[in-house]
Amino acid sequence: MPELPEVETVKRILTPQLIGRRIQKLTIHKPEIIATPDAESFAECLTNAVITGLRRRGKFLLIDFENHYTVTLHLRMTGQLFAAPKNYPCKKHTHLIFHLDDGNELRFVDVRRFGKFWLLRTEEPDILTGIQKLGLEPFDAELTGAYLEEKFSKRKIAVKQALLEQSVIAGIGNIYADEILYQSHIHPAIKTADLKQEQWESLAWAVPLVMKTAVRNNAITAEDYLKEEGRAYRTSEFLRVYGRKGIACSACGASIEKITISGRGSYYCPRCQSLK
DNA sequence: TTTACTGTTCACCA
DNA sequence: GTGGTGAACAGTAA
């Protein structure tokens, strides 16, 4: 369930459940989800380790341990990470279980198995996961219209594709890119070289607004999260354009359209989001 | 049976 | 070097 708002929600739910917990044992059903090192070393280094904190960077989640190891993970398309009582029924596609010292289990479920785990020394520079290539967080004060213009104005890609570049802004995915463009009144297919200064400013304003709103709207209780009630975010009532092809725009009443940009489905309002 | 799908990376091509 | 396309990962759902 991954775009920044969902990863942030996972972090907020898991933090109080995991801090101070000791890993008694690991069960790795699918070793291929461990990118580095091998599954055996992964389990060995984390057995008896105590969790000290959780962090998020872009769509990555980081779990810090007292023994100076950090587990970095990416949920990709369908990964889920949640804490459950050990007698709670184990779902299909559960690939990794951390057995905690309070009787709960931290479980990783991933239907499509695109998600990945890396184990790294906390203090060592991370050159493996791709985190070091990430750009600004959406809430960073340095994210201005001028920053975006400088990054993109000489390039000729669709603005929709530009928003998805993790090396410029970290954490935006296909759903929220569409929502950001809708709030900015910018057509997703406009080329970055054709955007005006005020449109870059508009994007720099909409990015943190949409992400902050999404984090708030995605907030659910740990109980609901365990029951997967937070999973329908793709069709969330809070989305203004994504997944709403043929439905009336809530601002102007025009019918939301869907086109393909760089192979990704892109939803927009043909009246609110002009091509100029 | 066919197609699309929230993410990322890579190969190949113009 | 830029950028477009498609494939790969693997499974489900419409």
Description of the molecule:
The protein is of the alpha+beta class. It contains 7 helices and 11 strands. The protein has helices spanning 4-18, 39-46, 145-152, 159-163, 174-184, 197-218, 222-226; strands at residues 23-28, 34-36, 51-57, 60-65, 69-74, 79-85, 94-100, 104-110, 116-121, 257-261, 264-268. The strands form 3 sheets. A 5-stranded mixed sheet has the order 2-9-5-4-3, with helices on one face. It has a 4-stranded antiparallel sheet with strand order 1-7-8-6, covered by helices on one side. It has a two-stranded antiparallel sheet with strand order 10-11. It binds a DNA duplex (14 and 14 nucleotides) through residues 1-3, 6, 59, 74-78, 93, 110-116, 130, 155-157, 161, 164, 166, 173-176, 233-234, 242, 262-265.
